[in-house]
Amino acid sequence: MELKELIKDIKKIDLGIVKSSDVKMFQSEKEAIEYYNDAVDNVLSGNTDIAIIKLRKVLNLSPDFDEANILLDKVRQYEASKSIGDKVYENIRGNDSRNIGRKKSLPQKLHINPRILLKIIIVFFVIAITTFVCILLIKLLGKPIEKEPGVTEVTYSQQEVNELNQQIQDLRDNLALSEQETQDALSGSQDSQETLTQLQNEINKNEALLELYRAAYLFEIEQFITSADIAGTLDAEIYKGAEKELYNEVYSKATAMAADSLFSIGLDLYNQSDFEGAVANLSKVEGYNPIYEDIGRCYYLMGRSYFELGNSTKAIEMYEKADKVTTYTNKTGLLYYTGKAYQQLGNYEKAKENYNTLINEYPKSDLVGYAKDRLAEME
Predict the structure, then answer these.
(1) Is residue 349 part of a domain?
(2) Please, are residues 367 and 332 in contact by the beta-carbon 8 Å criterion?
(3) How far is it, in rounded angstroms, from Cα 177 to Cα 123?
């Protein structure tokens, strides 16, 4: 399927007209329309990979959204006509269909001035030949001439010596001149060095883009923790336009889902009495999502796990953090188990304080009887 066939007849839904009609809409349906319109924009700009993510969100919010189902099928057909390798290769090389008519990328523009390159080669060749001749002459002059039977001794006149010294000096001058020419040639290639630096920066950006696509792919196959870990290492300032939008989406969604996954795993391990495993997973939840909706319960379960592991001090710390979360309502459990932890540490005064608060403020709680039994143990 060609891109022009894909974008034929697709259009956005006017949310204003829908709102002004008598049709009652839920908030999820309004959000679905907004995502659908975003997906249409992505398709029209050629960003079909992002459009697929948006359309899936639309169908999650409103499964009976017919327009979204139809467009998603078309986009998938279009994507199926291109291999993953082709798309990644085209993105790096700048040959993607979305880049037609745009300015060529640095890898396509890079070239070194052939005259500068030729000059550098010639200069180094001259240096090599000059150095070899100098070494040869110096060895020749410094080597003693032995007499051989029947051979007349070879001698040099002062003029010959002077001429030879002059040749050596000329070679040295040529060497100095060659070195200067080399420096000039290298300084002339400074622009090429700057181009290479820009190319390296472009390579770094492409590598970051590949990592972003990998994080998006892992999110799609529900490997939320790994996706969030990759997204967390990326520099948001590198991305622009559609890539920046994809980064923001992947990072926010992956971190939220990673926190939810870790909480679920931690809860399952807690219920299996694997308290070390529970702490290992629950303790990471806040790092992925500091405003996790069930963070109070997360702290509470960590406190219970630490107590079972014999670390009552750490348990109290977690109970206190849970108590500061205004949305966490299990105050009776916090009072009872905080008292139990203090009792385990031998701090009976604080233990009694928590038990008595539970008894006096929550007299109908099922934990009141247990609190009274604990108080009796300390009499």
Answers:
(1) yes
(2) yes
(3) 9
